[in-house]
Amino acid sequence: MKYYPVNLNIQNRHCLVVGGGVVGTRKVIALLDCGARVTVVSPDPTPRLQELAAMGSIQLEKRSYRSDDINKMFLVIGATDDENLNRQISKDAERVNILCNIADRPEVCNFILPAIVRRGDLAITISTSGKSPAMAKRLRLELETQFGEEYADLLRLMGAIRDKLLSQAHEPEAHKALFNQLIDKDLIGLIKAGNTQDINALLHDVLGEGYKIEELIPKS
Q1: Model pLDDT for residues 51-68, shown as the tens digit of each residue
Q2: What's the maximum distance between 2 C-alpha atoms anywhere in the chain?
Q3: 69-113: per-residue pLDDT in tens?
Q4: Domain boundaries, the chain
Q5: What are phi and psi of 110, to 5 degrees?
Q6: What CATH homologous superfamily does 14-113 map to?
Q7: Residues 207, 81: Cα–Cα separation, whole Å
Q8: Which DSSP string corresponds to 77-99?
Q9: Could you tell me the CA-to-CA distances from 65 to 29, 36, 46, 60 in Å, in that order?
Q10: In the list 80, 103, 128, 207, which could disulfide-bond 211, CB 3.0-4.6 Å?
Q11: Cα–Cα nearest to 82, from 42, 37, 30, 126
């Protein structure tokens, strides 16, 4: 199986998680982090899921799954230890043409979830097409040591610079050379070192007046 890589926008999309154990809880939190509107169906949800429900962060149905639970959903994730139930969820999703992932069962999914390294808006995904989750995890751990939190700050800064350039009627195509200069001159290294003076000197050298990191991404 060769998968087509894609990043989904699930902001305010209705997503269903069937199963309220440790795995289901992890799936729910990942969906919430991306802005999804999550419904969980489980007769025995974890305390964390019950807390999220009490806070109004998720809709929790403390009962067994029914086939009509997937109606009007954008995607469904099956995270139960009942093989027959997981396969029923997959069949129901196929019937109504929605996205379906069954945890650790790639053969009954129409999409699989990669291992992810997140640093703010940076998302590095690793997939072995379901062949070796252990290898995907090993690569994720290696990448986590290579890409630190400075990459989150870099993207925040780059985004703020881009917004300011666009507000001044700069053409987007003209930005590429400027951003390449910032990267080539080791802006990421300066951010990692926390060297505000040298960062501002580089911004001035490449972009001119009016670009200071403390003004572009002020600390809260």
Answers
A1: 999 999 999 999 999 999
A2: 64
A3: 999 999 999 999 999 999 999 999 999 999 999 988 888 999 998
A4: 14-113, 114-147, 150-216
A5: -105, 0
A6: NAD(P)-binding Rossmann-like Domain (3.40.50.720)
A7: 56
A8: EE--S-HHHHHHHHHHHHHHT-E
A9: 20, 20, 16, 12
A10: 207
A11: 42
Report the amino acid identity of residue 65.
Answer: Y
Q: Output the pTM of the full model.
A: 0.82
DSSP secondary structure letter of residue 114: P
CATH for the 114-147 domain, from 3.30.160, 3.30.70, 2.40.160, 1.10.10 = 3.30.160
Please write the tens of the pLDDT for every residue from 137-188: 999 999 999 999 999 999 999 999 999 988 886 677 778 889 999 999 999 9
